[in-house]
């Protein structure tokens, strides 16, 4: 490639852009160890706020609630998103396919307030007509999160499905495999990495959502972003800094493991090729 | 005796395939019809209702009473939105803020994506993860980080005071500037990613041919690289602009009393005023405003997803 050495405008921008992305998070991490409550004063190193965080029963139960919702939403979203990806990449002449592909890509950009409001109105009407859901809570958040997370899964999985060599599937079908069996023994292992990354993406999206959950939740279900939001609204809180540090740490570790795997797989492919 | 021509086992196989296809199509289709399309129809319906003190807090639009079937459409909410300058200002403020933030994202994100696509292969993966990683942490917390930095007693003001650049703190938090900055910060990865995916597929031979024919690198960029990355720019721009118009968290946390954005107004109508019909009308108007960008994005995305590998 042309000028691959030395400084160029774009390379300087890359470094500056990454600094822009990471400095604020770095500040949060540093201040989570600050003994003082104020941001402008450094009163020495302390892990006091972590202790405070782990004693906060409200935050702990919200974490547990969020993790459960994210787990169920991501799992369901992977099923639905994969089916959508199949329809979009494989069933080219199916009736209704265009409508389905519009419905699955729209949530990618839909403003959250609209999605949240529309789902809440649906649940209210459903409660009037069929008596379900009586109380909004985990189940309604699960439905809402599954719906918007499926869109992201469909994008990730359809990218992988396009690269799958279809002749192997056709061979299996010619040899008498049912479509279902072909999917489980041929296609599934090939798209498994995309399913895992789709699941992880859906999991983080569900864990992170404040707006949609606030609309469709009831008094019984408080997720972590709701607790964080109500505390942050009042101003800077060192407990939240400690929570942020833990979240950033966990995500970084998972990203590092993902990087290590991908890099190893790539290297293996290179030596084989 | 036409069916005799197709042997029974083959017919059975064909039926099985058709059945499987119907199931594969049917499940997500029904789910999305019920939980995505139908809710929009309901928002439309409630936007023609009027607010009452009841549970749920709106008048039914369709009624069946005393042997008469009546549909009462109340256009009052829309007229109200048009007459009150607050709402017009909020729509305008949202579009302006989202536009400024999108431009900022593009100006920072494009060079980043360009440098990433030109980096050696094993570095590309590292950069990609570095750009995406913040978006996998918490959106809320990343916005919150700026509260500590921009505040009057925040990090940036303390630093500037200490350096002697300023004598008294500048008000940065709770301004429109903070909102634009916050949106640009939070959405930057969504701009970089599609542009990078596009640039990395660019045929290097075109650039080599241009430079062999004596094209200067800046001209090559303007006449070849930039036009060819149009699809990535459109996708990135839409991924930032559309959600930014309806953004609630960022104007709520970083904006001030003069920050008028439609997502925040909708939230307040819904949660504070409990006026569901007006909130619905606000959502419908917002959707109408965003229809062109959404269709543009959808056409791009559908092409990407259907393309053969």
TrEMBL record, chain A:
Domain ABC transmembrane type-1: 63-258
PANTHER family assigned to the protein according to its UniProt record, in alphabetical order: PUTRESCINE TRANSPORT SYSTEM PERMEASE PROTEIN POTI
Residue stretches spanning the membrane: 12-33, 69-88, 108-127, 139-161, 182-204, 242-262
Localisation per UniProt entry: Cell membrane
Bilayer disposition of the protein: Multi-pass membrane protein
GO cellular component: plasma membrane
Family assignment from sequence similarity: Belongs to the binding-protein-dependent transport system permease family. CysTW subfamily.
UniProt keyword list: Cell membrane, Membrane, Transmembrane, Transmembrane helix, Transport
GO biological process, one term: transmembrane transport
Name of the molecule in the record: Putrescine transport system permease protein
Chief localisation class: membrane
UniProtKB/TrEMBL annotation, chain B:
Pfam families for this protein: BPD_transp_1 (PF00528)
InterPro entries: MetI-like, MetI-like_sf
Cellular component terms per the entry's GO annotation: plasma membrane
Annotated ranges, domain ABC transmembrane type-1: 91-297
Superkingdom classification of source: Bacteria
Keyword tags: Cell membrane, Membrane, Transmembrane, Transmembrane helix, Transport
Xref: CDD domains: TM_PBP2
GO biological process: transmembrane transport
Gene3D superfamilies: MetI-like (1.10.3720.10)
Record-annotated membrane-spanning stretches: 23-48, 97-117, 123-141, 177-196, 231-250, 276-297
Membrane-topology descriptor: Multi-pass membrane protein
Record's subcellular location: Cell membrane
SUPFAM superfamilies: MetI-like
Family assignment from sequence similarity: Belongs to the binding-protein-dependent transport system permease family. CysTW subfamily.
Name assigned to this protein: Putrescine transport system permease protein
Organism whose genome encodes this protein: Marinobacter daqiaonensis
């Amino acid at each position: 490639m042309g000028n691959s050495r030395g400084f160029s405008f774009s390379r300087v921008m890359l470094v500056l852009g990454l600094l822009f992305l990471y400095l604020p998070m770095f500040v949060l991490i540093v201040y989570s160890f600050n003994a003082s409550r104020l941001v402008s004063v450094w009163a020495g190193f302390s892990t006091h706020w972590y202790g405070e965080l782990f004693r906060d029963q409200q935050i702990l139960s919200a974490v547990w609630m969020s993790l459960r919702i994210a787990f169920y939403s991501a799992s369901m979203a992977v099923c639905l998103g994969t089916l959508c990806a199949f329809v979009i990449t494989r069933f080219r002449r199916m009736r209704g396919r265009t409508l389905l592909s519009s419905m699955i890509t729209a949530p990618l950009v839909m403003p959250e307030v609209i999605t949240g409001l529309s789902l809440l109105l649906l649940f209210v009407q459903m409660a009037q007509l069929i008596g379900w859901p009586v109380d909004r809570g985990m189940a309604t958040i699960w439905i809402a999160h599954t719906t918007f997370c499926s869109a992201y899964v469909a994008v990730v999985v359809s990218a992988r499905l396009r690269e799958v060599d279809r002749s192997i599937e056709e061979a299996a079908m010619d040899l008498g495999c049912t479509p279902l069996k072909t999917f489980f023994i041929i296609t599934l292992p090939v798209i498994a990495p995309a399913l895992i990354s789709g699941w992880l993406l859906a999991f983080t999206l569900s864990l992170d959502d404040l707006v949609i959950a606030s609309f469709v939740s009831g008094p019984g279900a408080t997720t972590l972003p709701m607790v964080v939001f109500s505390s942050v609204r009042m101003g800077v809180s060192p407990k939240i800094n400690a929570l942020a540090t833990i979240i950033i740490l966990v995500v970084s570790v998972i990203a590092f493991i993902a990087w290590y795997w991908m890099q190893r797989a790539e290297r293996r492919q290179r030596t084989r090729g | 005796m036409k069916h005799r021509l197709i042997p029974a086992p083959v017919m059975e196989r064909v039926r099985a395939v058709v059945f499987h296809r119907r199931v594969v199509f049917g499940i997500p289709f029904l789910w999305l019809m019920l939980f995505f399309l139908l809710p929009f129809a309901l928002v439309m319906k409630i936007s023609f209702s009027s607010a009452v003190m009841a549970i749920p807090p709106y008048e039914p639009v369709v009624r069946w009473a005393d042997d008469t079937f009546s549909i009462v459409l109340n256009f009052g909410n829309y007229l109200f939105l048009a007459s009150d300058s607050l709402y017009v200002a909020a729509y305008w403020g949202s579009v302006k803020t989202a536009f400024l933030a999108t431009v900022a994202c593009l100006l920072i994100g494009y060079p980043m994506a360009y440098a990433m696509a030109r980096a050696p292969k094993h570095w590309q993966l590292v950069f990609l993860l570095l750009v995406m990683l913040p978006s996998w942490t918490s959106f809320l917390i990343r916005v919150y980080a700026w509260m500590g930095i921009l505040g009057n007693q925040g990090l940036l003001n303390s630093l500037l005071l200490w350096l002697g650049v300023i004598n008294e703190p500048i008000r940065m938090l709770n301004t429109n500037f903070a909102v634009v900055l916050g949106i640009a910060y939070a959405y930057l990865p969504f701009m970089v990613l599609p542009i990078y995916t596009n640039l990395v597929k660019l045929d290097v031979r075109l650039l080599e041919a241009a430079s062999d024919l004596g094209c200067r690198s800046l001209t090559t960029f303007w006449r070849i690289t930039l036009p060819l990355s149009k699809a990535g720019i459109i996708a990135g721009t839409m991924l930032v602009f559309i959600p930014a118009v309806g953004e609630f968290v960022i104007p709520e946390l970083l904006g001030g009393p003069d920050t008028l954005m439609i997502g925040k107004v909708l939230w307040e109508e819904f949660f504070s005023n409990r006026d569901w019909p007006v909130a619905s009308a606000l959502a419908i108007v917002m959707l109408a405003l965003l229809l062109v960008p959404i269709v543009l994005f959808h056409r791009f995305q559908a092409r990407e997803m259907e393309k053969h590998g």
